Amino acid sequence: FHIGEREEKCIIEDVPSDTLVIGKYKVQRWDVHTHGFLESAPGLGMFVTVSNPHAEVLMSKLYGSQGTFSFTSEISGEHIICLQSNSTRFIAFAGSKLRIHLDIRVGEHFFDESAVQAKDKVNEINLRLEHLIEQIHHISKEQNYEREREEKFRKTSEETNSNILWWAIVQTLILISIGVWQIKSLRDFFISKKLV
After folding, report:
1. How far is Cα 68 from Cα 105, in angstroms, rounded to an integer?
2. Separation of alpha carbons 171 and 180, rounded Å
3. Which segments cross the bilayer (predicted)?
């Protein structure tokens, strides 16, 4: 994505509790002379701020023009990841465009390939099994989180349906009472005018 030099861009990531999130980014600055983005942006860094669903800051750190950040979610929900350049130019002069390449991996535990290339096949199989077990735990967490969300949605739907039913009953009672009142008023009117 593209942002201005002093602009902040936030991304919402829905993450289950106790899950590792790893983000990797690279910043490129627009070059007026070549009319393209430079391969790197020396001297330019990024402030990375991560907030949990309760708006508590989990992480706020300054990184270079490319880097990797990670955090572990404590509670499930929408986490907000914000990126902003550390440009020191005044806003009036900071008109340069930046291109940000961002890769966010949720629940990934990177597999150490150097350890896999060990000559001992038992260790290799053991490492692969541990990696598979971690993936199974992650999938289990994701499923539990989806169940929680589905249960909240179901409760909200049931409450809404219940409210709609009671509202319909109240409306019917109001209409019936207004109808009875109108009939009584019309009858009293006719009696007072001696038409009946």
Report:
1. 11
2. 14
3. 164-183
Q: What is the pLDDT along the chain (196 residues), one digit of tens a residue?
A: 888 877 889 999 888 888 888 999 988 887 777 777 777 666 778 889 999 999 899 888 988 888 899 988 888 889 999 998 886 654 444 457 888 899 998 876 554 555 445 556 677 788 888 888 888 988 888 899 999 999 999 999 999 999 999 999 999 999 999 999 999 999 998 888 877 6
Cα-Cα-Cα-Cα dihedral sign, residues 19, 69, 13, 108:
negative
Q: How far apart are CA 13 and CA 100, in angstroms?
A: 17
* Amino acid at site 24: K
CATH number for 2-108 (one of 2.60.120.680, 3.40.50.700, 2.40.10.170, 3.50.50.60): it is 2.60.120.680
pTM of the model: 0.58
Helices (H), 91-120: 113-116
Cα–Cα dist 69/63, whole Å: 9
Q: What does the alpha-carbon distance between residue 102 and residue 123 come to, in Å, rounded to a whole number?
A: 34
Residue 107 one-letter amino acid: G
CA distance 154 to 41: 49
